């Protein structure tokens, strides 16, 4: 009788210990899945922010503005960021699932290079445009990207500077120059491969450089 009671107590303790170990293992797996998922989402946003900040960059950007004292003329437009949906360009007012951008790189002793970069959601995989080829950016064994949304929000303001007329330096006349600024709003939603119940999202607003400049020439 005592032996049966001892066996029952031992089995009970083994069951309790097994339940605790299983609970801790599940909690550890959930924590690992959430950590890896959030890390992938943050890294994706950080890379997008880095590339978007370089969008439209050009070492010869000063040539877009006329010299002071000359009649203003419409400057050449810098390359702009392009939204995509299903891989095709869409208007800035629409919401897309990808983007492409261009910037110019010119290093000492080297010719000017036109660099293209981009991001898009292909199925459940986030892809990165690198050297004219779309490459998988994320580890498909870690995360499934279930949603990517990009939107451009614009604002417009007048530049406070005035331009002196070429023939009369003392006369100052407004050039009616307006700067159209843009902000890229990005939303990423991911699901962990380790734990399908773990779904997280991250959003960010990224200021776009080299905005469109509307220049209306004013005669003196």
UniProtKB/TrEMBL annotation:
Protein name as annotated: Uncharacterized protein
Provenance organism: Roseateles flavus
């Amino acid at each position: 009788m005592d032996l049966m009671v001892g066996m029952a107590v031992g089995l009970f303790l083994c069951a309790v210990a097994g339940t605790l170990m299983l609970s801790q293992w599940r909690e550890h797996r959930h924590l690992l899945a959430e950590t890896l998922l959030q890390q992938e989402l943050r890294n994706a946003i950080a890379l997008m922010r880095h590339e978007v900040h370089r969008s439209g960059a050009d070492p010869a950007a000063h040539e877009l503005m006329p010299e002071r004292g000359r009649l203003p003329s419409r400057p050449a437009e810098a390359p702009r960021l392009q939204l995509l949906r299903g891989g095709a360009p869409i208007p800035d007012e629409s919401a897309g699932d990808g983007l492409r951008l261009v910037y110019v790189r010119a290093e000492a002793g080297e010719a000017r290079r036109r660099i293209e970069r981009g991001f898009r959601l292909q199925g459940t995989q986030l892809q990165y445009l690198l050297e004219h080829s779309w490459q998988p950016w994320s580890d498909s064994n870690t995360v499934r990207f279930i949603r990517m949304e990009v939107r451009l929000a614009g604002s417009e303001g007048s530049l406070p500077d005035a331009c002196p007329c070429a023939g009369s330096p003392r006369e100052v006349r407004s050039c009616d120059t307006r700067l159209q600024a843009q902000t890229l709003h990005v939303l990423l939603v991911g699901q962990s491969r380790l734990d399908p119940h773990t779904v997280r999202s991250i959003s960010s607003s990224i200021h776009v450089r080299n905005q469109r400049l509307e220049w209306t020439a004013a005669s003196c």
